[in-house]
Design goal:
- The longest helix is centred in the N-terminal third of the chain and has 28 residues, at 84-111.
- The chain is 32% helix and 16% strand.
- The strands form two sheets. Strands 3-2-1-4-5-6-7 form a seven-stranded parallel β-sheet, with helices on one face.
- The chain has two domains: 16-195 and 351-361, Glycogen Phosphorylase B (Rossmann fold); 208-340, Rossmann fold, CATH 3.40.50.2000.
- By secondary structure, the protein is α/β, with parallel strands linked by helices.
- α1 runs parallel beside α2 (52-61).
Length: 363
């Protein structure tokens, strides 16, 4: 009897990419959601890496993906915004310690063969010389008042250590980030990948007059929540307030004309934005990208002391796109200015994810 020798080819293992957003509010984590979806669609495995509410929201979005808890930068805001820069200066040793801890954790993951590539969204210690490493940021220039030159140079020095830098904005003169993402001179290559958003515009019946989206580090998140409740409670406006507090179990309750929700995952938040006439929120860049994708009317209240949000709100206001004001000056009457502005429009770009992820295939 003739014998047959069968040679089976071993199954090809998918490459695993560590996606690690900074926990500074929820924006860094939520803008990584479309990147993670695209990686999975392109045949990669994904290892989630973050801490706190940022990690929790990613685990809720992708409950079947493995994760690693990274050290916390523990960034908070002072009650008085003008003290933010001084407080950040005092935090530098702790941030440096967290970065060193990140480097050790990544080194172990690489040594154990657990990851084949890295995408870091502003986690400055998450990189490896042995693997293709990408840094995502919309702040090639870091605004910090009279120290902006030095903070920008320090940030750019870190970015240069990565194989690629992806900026979630268009390269065109008409863009969302202004001078934050478009410096005059750079000594490293930058790839503009277009705005990242997990949201899409849909024609739904309007259910709420105002959607209030809260986010960001404490105590400023709570201070704005109190301000919003004082402004909208017992008015003729039907309001949905999303607190931006991510917990294991969600809470929903109604207080007079205001429906209050602790947090929303992507699908529910997308529906709620589409069902709302206007959105009141911080001028965080991820929120701006989401609202631009949905072409939604908005009013911005930048976080006190955060130069980036103040700049983004100011430039959109000066361009006649979206009105804004300081936190202490907000009143419900301010929303009457919205019709005087042109509103956010979608800055769509045709992103080829197969080409973008070529770095991880060695292309």
């Amino acid at each position: 009897m003739k014998e047959f020798n069968y040679k089976f080819k071993p199954l090809k293992k998918n490459k695993t990419i560590l996606v690690a957003p900074l926990h500074w509010g929820l924006g860094h984590a939520t803008r990584c959601i479309p990147i993670i979806r695209a990686l999975l669609q392109e045949g990669f495995d994904v290892l989630l890496g973050s801490d706190g509410a940022a990690l929790l929201i990613l685990r809720k979005e992708f409950p079947n993906l493995p994760f690693v808890e990274l050290p916390s930068y523990d960034i908070t805001y002072p009650k008085k915004g003008e003290w933010f820069k001084f407080k950040m200066f005092l935090k530098l040793p702790q941030i440096k310690k967290a970065m060193n801890s990140e480097k050790r954790m990544v080194k172990r993951l690489v040594a154990d063969g657990k990851i084949d590539g890295i995408i870091s969204d502003n986690r400055m210690g998450v990189r490896s010389k042995k693997l293709p490493s990408v840094f995502i940021t919309h702040q090639l220039n870091v605004l910090s008042g009279n120290t902006s030159f030095f903070s920008s140079k320090m940030h750019q020095k870190i970015i240069k250590k990565y194989n690629e830098c992806w900026v979630p904005d268009v390269e065109d003169p008409i863009n969302l980030t202004g001078k934050l993402g478009h410096p005059k001179r750079l000594k490293f290559p930058v790839r503009y990948i277009g705005p990242l958003s997990r949201m899409a515009k849909k024609e739904l019946n309007i259910k709420y007059d105002v959607l209030v989206l809260l986010s960001g580090p404490e105590p400023q998140r709570t201070l704005l929540e109190v301000k919003m409740m004082d402004s909208f409670l017992n008015t003729d406006q039907k309001v949905l307030l999303v607190r931006g507090v991510v917990e294991e179990e969600n809470e929903v309750y109604v207080k007079d004309n205001v429906t209050i929700v602790n947090f929303m995952q992507s699908e529910d938040l997308e529906r709620s934005i589409n069902e709302s006439k206007i959105v009141v929120s911080r001028s965080g860049y991820t929120t701006i990208m989401d609202l631009a994708a949905m072409e939604k009317e908005a009013f911005f209240i930048p976080t006190p002391g955060q130069y980036e949000q103040k700049y983004l709100a100011k430039q959109l206001k000066q361009k006649g796109i979206v009105p804004s004001c300081k936190q202490e000056k907000f009143s419900i009457e301010q929303l009457g200015k919205i019709p005087l502005y042109s509103g956010l429009k979608s800055f769509k770009s045709q992103l080829n994810y197969a080409e973008l992820f070529g770095l991880f295939h060695g292309k």
